[in-house]
């Protein structure tokens, strides 16, 4: 059975139908991608999973827990989210130590000190960063803190919303490598949202293409690489992702 | 024909630790072509573009041995000469639309003022431009104020505005970074046509090496305020500088590549 099962998910904000019938089944240990242009509903799918957006219709099951209006504390231990903007997602006046100890306190962990040190070590920051403030860190370091915060409760699932979109290419490579390594070491399951097809192709075995709140098509990494997309929209996305082709040069 | 000469351009900001030079001796010449400036954030791309237009924010200071546009010495241009140049013969699309659209004027009025043409003609051209930058509802955007538009919409409106004046030189600072890839390609097509058909010179500033490589004729690669490499875009794959090579290699590829991704190993010598 799938670890995450999304069936005909609909999410509306008043008049706005942000997600209009999306289904996906993600197996344990899999990395599943969602790509699409801005406003296509990618973030809303993740937010609905976390309970940050209303599930208007459809059914979502995560680790055998059918999701209703409320998420249990156990859910938040198993499923964690990492957001795009490493600047906005950390409280500016909280030290890294405080950022990391809060989830541990909420969930009643005792061995906080050793967990914090371990988490900092795992994301490649080290103990020297423990008492710094977010403004004393670069964008890539902040995103490492956000990943450490998500990992500290030892979740099984990470929901990653454009985790490298705000980073320079060289820093993106470091963060993608970190996420890749953590997944294989810990057997984590990922849903990774990105507008960048190359990032999703690198990180995910399967992906869903979204447009205007709908699922356009689901592809495996191999079919993406073979350019065997069935839908015109996916092909347009593929061709635009390769860069610019002067008019007339297109076959 | 050379449109712009830049010789030993330097931009300095005072800081508590003393003056910080953020552009350190940049030199290049631009013809009626597409010149890309790439580099990571903080490398000095935007400050280079702004200095050419005399828009270095105070208390920063820009100096150059030579800065000339179409025979005009920009280092000694009078305020009157600048007024005649900016927005008319030289335009700049800024990275953040918030800073270049007038917040208290509708998009339509700004477009018409930029057109330098009779009103009826300007109106038609404005609507055509909004359409050309793939704005689905041009009439709504025409009547809107900047704050009523999303980031991507604002960026498109700004590109439309810069193109209204049909400048001889366009400095485009990350003009498409807030746009979706498919729209981005359409905007590049418009810029391409202006270079090809009207002989406009284009400085295209971007952090996206792949995009610049496929769109521009020539590329300047900036690191810590300096141009570390200049090469034809077609030769990017054969770049010599380890920084340029590193930037290219660390990109994930749809067709698959190395895992883990190669990361950039910075060397102290690059910044000297
Ligand atoms: N909290 C909200 N209230 C109203 N509309 C929203 C809200 N969140 C998202 N939307 C709308 O839902 C649509 C999908 O948004 P989103 O999921 O953020 O797209 P993506 O992540 O693909 O860019 C957009 O039209 C957006 O404006
Ligand atoms: N107003 C300013 N005061 C002081 N330093 C500045 C100012 N604007 C930019 N800088 C610094 O100049 C350097 C180059 O900035 P910029 O040209 O914006 O880089 P890029 O566009 O390549 O990201 C950066 O280190 C930045 O911090
Ligand atoms: Mg989003
Ligand atoms: Mg910039």
From TrEMBL, chain A:
It is a peripheral membrane protein. This is Glutathione import ATP-binding protein GsiA. The keyword Translocase applies. Pfam families: ABC_tran. CDD domains: ABC_NikE_OppD_transporters (cd03257). Its EC number is 7.4.2.10. It is an enzyme of class 7 (translocase). GO terms for molecular function: ATP binding; ATP hydrolysis activity. It catalyses: glutathione(out) + ATP + H2O = glutathione(in) + ADP + phosphate + H(+). Keywords: ATP-binding, Cell inner membrane, Cell membrane, Membrane, Nucleotide-binding, Translocase, Transport. It is found in: Cell inner membrane; Membrane. It comes from the Bacteria. Belongs to the ABC transporter superfamily. Glutathione importer (TC 3.A.1.5.11) family. Residues 4-237 form the ABC transporter domain. GO terms for biological process: transmembrane transport. Signal peptide: none annotated. The complex is composed of two ATP-binding proteins (GsiA), two transmembrane proteins (GsiC and GsiD) and a solute-binding protein (GsiB). GO terms for cellular component: plasma membrane. It comes from Cereibacter ovatus. Part of the ABC transporter complex GsiABCD involved in glutathione import. Responsible for energy coupling to the transport system.
Automatic annotation (TrEMBL), chain B:
It holds the Pfam family ABC_tran. InterPro entries: AAA+_ATPase, ABC_Ni/Peptide_Import, ABC_transporter-like_ATP-bd, P-loop_NTPase. Signal peptide: none annotated. Keywords: ATP-binding, Cell membrane, Membrane, Nucleotide-binding, Transport. It is a peripheral membrane protein. Belongs to the ABC transporter superfamily. This is Peptide/nickel transport system ATP-binding protein. It comes from Cereibacter ovatus.
